[in-house]
Amino acid sequence: MRHLYVRNIVRYLSLVLFQVLILNHMNLSGYINPYIYILFILLLPVRINKSMLLLFAFLTGLTIDYLGNTLGLHAAATVFMAFLRPSVIKVFFNNVEFLSGDEPGIAKIKTGGFLKYSLVLVFVHHSVLFFLEIFDFHDFLNTLSRTVLSTLVTTAMIMIIVLVFTPVKRKK
């Protein structure tokens, strides 16, 4: 159990630092914004208490808001994503049995399952974030295309990170 706490603390710190120190300063045509810090919420154990999940999402988003001066936008988007997370897991992986400390990672739900799961939740997060940022439906198609492009880039980066850092189990 202690290993689970240490792994999540290290994951949180490394993702937030990578986001704030590197990704927030990248300019991908001013149109694409990857936000990989949400991987922390995506990889929390499936059977985590819902209140704790929302609290972790709020604190994670608030940290990004504080360090990026974005006035609660990330906190709102991350909490909404975390709120929908149990439903998305239930819809996509109803037949998968998760034990107490199991994360919805590639080892448990395979690469295709993780791709579906992360793509949906990243799109939800980015939709809320970008539409709250603009707070207007006047330029709907521009905001939607920004959301889709950022979702694709963020999901690709998340998949690369997860594939690189997931240990390979050797068959005996």
Please explain how this structure is put together.
By secondary structure, the protein is mainly alpha-helical. It has one domain: Arp2/3 complex 21 kDa subunit ARPC3 (Orthogonal Bundle). The protein is built from six helices and no strands. The chain has helices at 2-21, 39-42, 50-68, 73-92, 106-134, 140-165. α1 (2-21) packs parallel to α3 and α3 runs antiparallel to α4. It is globular, with a radius of gyration of 16 Å. The two termini are 27 Å apart. The mean pLDDT is 91.
Question: How would you summarize what this structure contains?
Answer:
With 172 residues, this protein is mainly alpha-helical. It has helices spanning 2-21, 39-42, 50-68, 73-92, 106-134, 140-165. It has a single domain, classed as Orthogonal Bundle (Arp2/3 complex 21 kDa subunit ARPC3), CATH 1.10.1760.
Mean pLDDT reading: 91
User: What is the helix/strand order?
Assistant: HHHHHH
* Terminal Cα span: 27 Å
CATH class: Mainly Alpha
Radius of gyration: 16 Å
Apparent shape: globular
How many DSSP-defined strands? 0
Query: What is the count of DSSP helices, taking H or I runs of 4+ residues?
Result: 6
